[in-house]
Every structure is written in structure tokens, then in C-alpha cells.
Design a protein that fits this description.
Blueprint lengths: L14 E10 L6 H11 L10 H27 L6 H13 L9 E7 L4 H10 L2 E8 L6 H15 L7 E4 L7 H16 L7 E7 L3 H5 L4 H16 L4 E5 L12 H7 L7 E5 L8 H17 L4 E5 L6 H14 L8
Parallel strand pairs: 1-2, 1-3, 3-4, 5-6, 5-7, 7-8
The chain binds the ligand C=CC1=C(C)c2cc3[nH]c(cc4nc(cc5[nH]c(cc1n2)c(C)c5CCC(=O)O)C(CCC(=O)O)=C4C)c(C)c3C=C and fe (ii) ion (2 copies).
Enzyme class: lyase
Family: Belongs to the ferrochelatase family.
Catalytic activity: heme b + 2 H(+) = protoporphyrin IX + Fe(2+); Fe-coproporphyrin III + 2 H(+) = coproporphyrin III + Fe(2+)
Length: 336
């Protein structure tokens, strides 16, 4: 049957899309690109909850004049031939999951800040015929500054669509048995490759302002629960810390850097550190933990330090994503 004159083409029916979303990263490791990225990121009111009239002059007048050069230097130390680790790994995860939810059902990836944007990738999926889309912010622990803002951005894009796809969002998976099992296997595999037995294993999560916990954000509880379950699965104690403090407010404690500096004085000379809250290695793990964390620990009298990688696109990490995404697609798509 042909369409009446002037009728727009009807998208091919019934595809089910999965859009992996991560935080975002500069397009290049130089101060100009980092400034553009930080301006967008740090203007998000879900991230910095200070009224814009007060915050924007501080951001534009101080932070964006000083931080981009320092951060660009940090990015240069971890940049890969295929770009920023966060973007390259998220793309690899998306590629590895292609076809996992049924032939013809697309898996794609987007970033909350910068490119590829959530709006672009959602529009592309929609015009390729996806009438049902799972938005999957890849944050195991729910946080308004990460999960909620990714979903906000997706719904902002939907607000401009006449014919919206049906939408689901991926719930937090901080206590999902498949996630804990994948972390356990990954940590054990990484530990088995070390040429030393660590005195302590640290689990470092990205920090948040303490105030967000008091306001009811479940992030802190989710991190603690992940750490407890992982510790039980490993059958050994984990030292839980929070990293990447930003600004002057009080952040969640104990801080990763202060803990690394204090442990050797308490007789802990060999340490392994894992970052279970990051689904992909990025600046915060590869530079802040693996480079600067090592310097801090060894400089304080530690003798051995190991950074254990994130799940990334390892086979265990991809199997875990396939499981939790399939569950979120229940009734929509059967696993391939
Ligand atoms: C995993 C969860 C994350 C939470 C929670 C989070 C909160 C948060 N972050 C900042 C400030 C910065 N974070 C930066 C980088 C960064 N943060 C996360 C994840 C979480 N952030 C990731 C994955 C990354 C890495 C990006 C990359 O390109 O590799 C940065 C930028 C780098 C820098 O200049 O140091 C800032 C700034 C705040 C303020 C915040 C919560 C309030
Ligand atoms: Fe961050
Ligand atoms: Fe950092």
C-alpha cells in the first residue's frame, strides 16, 4: 500500500535499541578541548548544585581558567591511539554487544557530555526503526549526578520528537549477582597475575559531596553494598574509599589519596586497588589511581602497588552487561 502524498516515510517497524551511556570525555587531550568539556559538565545543575548566579562566575572566572591545562596534562598521560580511554572502551563494549539482543536490534553508545551525543544517537536509532529503546547509563551505583542526568538528557531529546519511541531506563545494578560475580572473577584474575600478595585490597569509588547523601541520594549506600557483597564473594576484607574530590565542600570519606598516604605508616606496605564503580577505565582510574595513587603510596613508604583494571570490554564484563541488559529488556527482546 502506498502512502498518501506528503506523508513522511514510516520507519521500519519493531526494532529494539540499546543505548549505552557514559559520562563523556574531551575530544582531544588539549586545554581548549578540555575547557569545552568541563564547561558543559560543570554547568550541569545535577553535578554542581550551587545556584548558577553564584556558581557560573566561579566556574568561568576561576575554574575554566586554571583546571583545563592541568587536566589536559593528565589526559595526555592516558590518551590512547584510538582516543580517550573512556570513549574507546565504551565503543568497544557497544561493538561487543552488537547482535546480543536479537538480529537487527541495534546497540549503540553515547556520552552525556560532548560526543557522540545522546540526542544524536537516539535520533539515529529512531530513524533506523527502533520503536523501543533501552537507555542504559553504565553506572552500577545510582547517583543523581550521573544516572539521573543521563536520563534527563535522553528525555530532553524525546521532548523534541513527534513520534517518540517507548523508553526504558536501566536500573542501578550495584547488587546484581552477575555484576558482583564479574567483579569477583576479574579481581581474582588480576590478583593471580601479581608477583606479590597484597596486605590490603582497596575499593575506591568516585566521591560525591557529603550533602548529597544527607539529601537522600542512595549513591553512598549503593557503593557500600557493592563493597560488602564483593568482600563476601572474595572472602576477604576490602578497604572502601572515595576518590576525585572536587571543590571545597565536604565529600564522602575516607578519601582514597589520604588512605593511600596513611596505610604504609600502619604497616600496610603492599596494596592492590580496584575501582568497582567505573564500568570503563578512564582518567579517574588510569591517571588518578594507577599513576598518582601509586606515587602517593610508594612515596609514603609502601613497597608494592597494583591497580586492578575495570571490567571494560573483558569477556566477563560483556557477559555481565548482556545479562543485566537482557533482564531490563524482558518482554521486549529475547537474548540472541
Ligand atoms: C562513576 C561515577 C561518577 C560520579 C558519581 C561523579 C561525580 C562527580 N564528578 C565531578 C567532577 C569531575 N569528574 C571528572 C571525571 C570523571 N568522573 C567520572 C565519573 C563520576 N563522576 C568519570 C567516568 C570521569 C572520567 C572522564 C574521562 O574523560 O575519563 C572530571 C574531569 C576530569 C578532571 O578535570 O579532573 C571532573 C571535574 C563532580 C563535581 C561530581 C559530583 C558532584
Ligand atoms: Fe567525576
Ligand atoms: Fe580526578
Amino acid at each position: 500500500m502506498s502512502l498518501p502524498d506528503g506523508h513522511p516515510p514510516i520507519p521500519a517497524p519493531d526494532r529494539i535499541g540499546v543505548l549505552l551511556v557514559n559520562l563523556g570525555t574531551p575530544s582531544a587531550p588539549d586545554a581548549t578541548s578540555v575547557r569545552r568539556y568541563l564547561a558543559e559538565f560543570l554547568s550541569d545543575r545535577r553535578v554542581v548544585e550551587i545556584p548558577p548566579l553564584i556558581w557560573q562566575p566561579i566556574l568561568r572566572g576561576i575554574i575554566l581558567r586554571t583546571r583545563p591545562k592541568k587536566s589536559a596534562h593528565a589526559y595526555q598521560q592516558v590518551w590512547r591511539p584510538d582516543g580517550s580511554p573512556l570513549a574507546a572502551i565504551t565503543k568497544a563494549q557497544s561493538d561487543a554487544l552488537q547482535g546480543a539482543f536479537g538480529a537487527g536490534n541495534p546497540v549503540d553508545w553515547a556520552m552525556r557530555y560532548g560526543t557522540p551525543s545522546i540526542a544524536d544517537r537516539l535520533a539515529a536509532m529512531r530513524s533506523d526503526g527502533a520503536q523501543r529503546i533501552l537507555i542504559a547509563p553504565l553506572y552500577p551505583q545510582y547517583c543523581a549526578a550521573t544516572t539521573a542526568t543521563a536520563n534527563d538528557k535522553a528525555f530532553e531529546a524525546l521532548a523534541g520528537m513527534r513520534w517518540q519511541p517507548a523508553i526504558r531506563t536501566l536500573p542501578p545494578y550495584h547488587d546484581h549477582p552477575a555484576y558482583i560475580a564479574a567483579l569477583k572473577a576479574s579481581v581474582e584474575e588480576s590478583l593471580s597475575r601479581l608477583d606479590f600478595e597484597p596486605d590490603a585490597i582497596m575499593a575506591s569509588f568516585h566521591g560525591m559531596p557529603q550533602r548529597t547523601l544527607e539529601l537522600g541520594d542512595p549513591y553512598h549506600c549503593h557503593c557500600r553494598k557493592t563493597a560488602r557483597l564483593l568482600s563476601e564473594a572474595l572472602g576477604r576484607e576490602l578497604t572502601v574509599t572515595f576518590q576525585s574530590r572536587f571543590g571545597r565542600a565536604k565529600w564522602l570519606e575516607p578519601a582514597t589519596d589520604a588512605t593511600l598516604a596513611a596505610l604504609p605508616g600502619k604497616g600496610v606496605k603492599k596494596v592492590a586497588i580496584v575501582a568497582p564503580g567505573f564500568s570503563a577505565d578512564c582518567l579517574e582510574t588510569l591517571e588518578e589511581l594507577a599513576i598518582r595513587g601509586r606515587e602517593t603510596f610508594l612515596g609514603a613508604g609502601g613497597s608494592q602497588f597494583a591497580y586492578l583494571p575495570c571490567l571494560n570490554d573483558s569477556s566477563g564484563g560483556i557477559d555481565m552487561l548482556r545479562t543485566i541488559l537482557s533482564e531490563a529488556l524482558a518482554g521486549w527482546a529475547q537474548p540472541a
